Amino acid sequence: MRKDILQKPKSFYDTFFRKPGANPQSTHYCPGCGHGVIHKLIAEAMDDFGIQERTIMISPVGCSVFAYYYFDCGNVQAAHGRAPAIATGLKRALPDSIVISYQGDGDLAGIGGNNILQAANRGENITVIFVNNAIYGMTGAQMAPTTLVGQKTTTTPLGRSVENEGYPLRMSELLATLKAPVYIERVAITDAKHVMQARKAIRKAIQNQIEGRGFSMVEALSPCPTGWGVTPCEAKKWVAEVMAEYFKLGVYKDKNGTPQNGESPPPGAKREIVTTKKEILALLGAKEEATDHKFTQLQAGENYQNPRIKIAGFGGQGVLLLGRLLSEAAMLSDYHTTWLPSYGPEMRGGTAHCHVNISNKRIGSPLVSEADVLFAMNLPSLDKFENEVRKGGVIFVNSSLIQRRVKRKDVEAVYVPATGIADNLGQTKSANMVMLGAYAGYTGLLSLKSILAAAESVVKRKEFKKVNEKAIKTGMEFVRNRKVKRSESVVELH
Amino acid sequence: MSKLFIKGNEAVIKGAVLAGCRAFYGYPITPASEIAEAAAKYFPQVGSTFLQGESEVASINMVYGAASAGQRAMTASSGPGISLKQEGISYSAGAELPLVVIDVMRGGPGLGNIAPEQGDYNQIVKGGGHGNYKLIVLAPNCAQEMCDLTMLAFELADRYRIPVVVLTDGFVGQMMEPVELPEPVTEFPQKTWIVDGTAKTSRNLISSIELEPEDLEKHNLKLQEKYKKISKAEVRYEEIQTDDAELILMGYGIVSRVLQSVVEEARSRGLRAGLLRPITLWPFPAKRIQELSGAAKLFFVSEMSNGQMVDDVRLALEGRRPTRFYGRMGGVVPTTGEILEQVKKIFHELRT
Question: Which of A183, A483, B4, B26 has the least CB density, counted as fewest CB within 10 Å?
Answer without folding.
Answer: A483
